[in-house]
Design goal:
Blueprint lengths: L1 H16 L6 H5 L1 E6 L5 H14 L16 H10 L5 E2 L7 H14 L5 E8 L4 H9 L30 E8 L1 H6 L6 E10 L12 H14 L8 E3 L6 H15 L7 E3 L2 H4 L6 H15 L1 E2 L22 E2 L4 E8 L3 E9 L2
Parallel strand pairs: 1-2, 1-3, 6-7, 6-10
Antiparallel strand pairs: 3-4, 5-11, 8-9, 10-11
Helix pairs in contact: 1-4, 5-11, 8-9
């Protein structure tokens, strides 16, 4: 489930980074911050049925540890012997972005030299699908054509498509990384947060929360909106959310909107809930590495006119040096990350 995804992704991230702490000092300066939106939901549902049908003695002693969201960080820490900060974030669909942003701040504050950070989710089960469908968040109009169901910004969109997996990155103090000759993909230069204070599931209709969140990230980065080359949108394919985010981005970029590329990679992989922000931060970094803006698939007929290039249906080659990745969640929790290429 979500812990297994986190462990697999952390293994890959650490291997790719080339960082294997061997001394006690290296282990105590390497931490973990992995979050999840809803954790072990499928296990809760399955064990509830088991409890009812077979009684309490059949409940596994691993039931509780397997459901706690911070155990994703815990298992990764134990497996790799990482004794630095051991933390978790739970902020619905903003979780992965918050985890990366918070971990970057721990490094900047000197609490760790290296942080293994990101989000993980394993929500595809009957109870999750029923619950999200009940609150009218899921797409239900393309059941016979599932590959067409996730269609952010398209006029026929009717909700998101659930995905699952994990996105984990290794964050490191620059001098520490340089000293060991690490391959550096990008630098996190901005991190913004905000709250809508509006509704338990719907975003603020004015887009003010998203706008303030992006604005805070720009302020922290010390750059202008016009310096951003690509935005990885939250873009879930919901009728309300997509246009609210688009309006907030248009407001932020103003006259510079016409030079901007923005797409939703959820059109390709679905919505990974608490893992989405981390996976999309990775997509954003790869967009810089390859100078390719990933496409918004299934965008046949945009629901609104915009000067922003929504990269419909096919990826586009363009110079990308600075990226913004947005993640917004139930409860009005918002996170934006700004990353810059390192040459």
């Amino acid at each position: 489930d979500f812990i297994v995804y986190a462990m697999a992704a952390a293994d890959q991230a650490l291997a790719d980074s080339g960082w294997t702490p061997r001394t006690e000092a290296e282990r105590t300066s390497t931490g973990v911050l992995i979050g999840s939106g809803i954790g072990g939901l499928s296990g809760i549902a399955d064990t509830s049925i088991l409890l009812k049908e077979k009684g309490p003695r059949r409940v596994s002693p691993f039931f509780i540890p397997g459901r706690l969201i911070n155990l994703a960080s815990g298992y990764v820490s134990i497996k790799h012997g990482l004794k630095g900060p051991n933390h978790a974030v739970v902020t619905a669909c903003s979780t992965g972005a918050h985890a990366i942003g918070d971990a970057a701040r721990l490094v900047a504050l000197g609490d760790a030299d290296v942080m293994v950070a990101g989000g993980t989710e394993s929500p595809i089960c009957r109870i999750a699908l029923a619950g999200f469908a009940a609150c009218r968040a899921l797409s239900t109009g393309f059941n016979d054509q599932p590959t067409k169901a996730s269609r952010p910004y398209d006029r026929d969109r009717d909700g998101f498509v659930m995905g699952e997996g994990a996105g984990i990155v290794v964050l490191e103090d620059y001098e520490h990384a340089k000293a060991r000759g690490a391959h550096i993909y990008a630098e996190i230069i901005g991190y913004g947060m905000s709250g809508d204070a509006f509704h338990i599931t719907a975003p603020a209709e004015t887009g003010d929360g998203a706008y303030r969140c992006m604005q805070a990230a720009l302020k922290r980065a010390g750059i202008q909106a016009s310096d951003i080359d690509y935005v990885n949108a939250h873009g879930t394919s919901t009728p309300m959310g997509d246009e609210i985010e688009l309006g907030a981005v248009e407001r932020l970029f103003g006259n510079a909107a016409g030079k901007l590329a923005m797409s939703s990679t959820k059109s390709a992989i679905g919505h990974l809930l608490g893992a989405a922000g981390a996976v999309e931060a990775i997509f954003s970094v790869l967009a810089m590495r390859d100078n390719i803006a990933p496409p918004t698939l299934n965008l046949d007929n945009p629901s609104v006119d915009t000067a922003i290039d929504l990269v419909p249906k096919q990826a586009k080659t363009r110079e990308i040096n600075t990226v913004l990745s947005n993640s917004f969640g139930f409860g009005g929790t918002n996170a934006s990350l700004i990353m810059r290429a390192v040459n």
